[in-house]
Amino acid sequence: MQLRRGVKASRRERRRSSRRDCALPAIIFIPGTSMAIPCTMVDEASSGARLRLSAARVERGRDKSYVPREFWVWMSVDRARVKCEPVWEKDDKIGVRVLSVIETAQANERSRSPNDIDSRCRFGPTLRNQY
Questions:
Q1: pTM of the prediction?
Q2: Minimal CB count within 10 Å: which of 23, 45, 95, 103?
Q3: Listed residue (41, 34, 86) closest to 64, CA to CA
Q4: Per the CATH hierarchy, to which homologous superfamily does domain 18-128 belong?
């Protein structure tokens, strides 16, 4: 039992940023197709997120090769389009690394300061400013 706890602790230490639980609706878009896969963002960090695919998608079954190397995630809450790559996949969940935040509708709204936008956007200002 002690060993397991130590293993779990070391896994947490390897993470680049802390995760925050959430339950946000999102949609996965696969480049070059018209496919839209509903999902829920289960937790998030500045560098990535865990997505849960819709129940209907899981019931139909899916081929692991189906998950492309890169795809877009649209988050309606933040009105952001995020370019991601899958890091892991298990059952109905996919862990993704954020490659870039392509657009945020809030950035186009008038009279909003950049600091106000950063405080409300997922994945934080640090990642967004890298691209």
A1: 0.63
A2: 23
A3: 86
A4: predicted glycosyltransferase like domains (2.40.10.220)
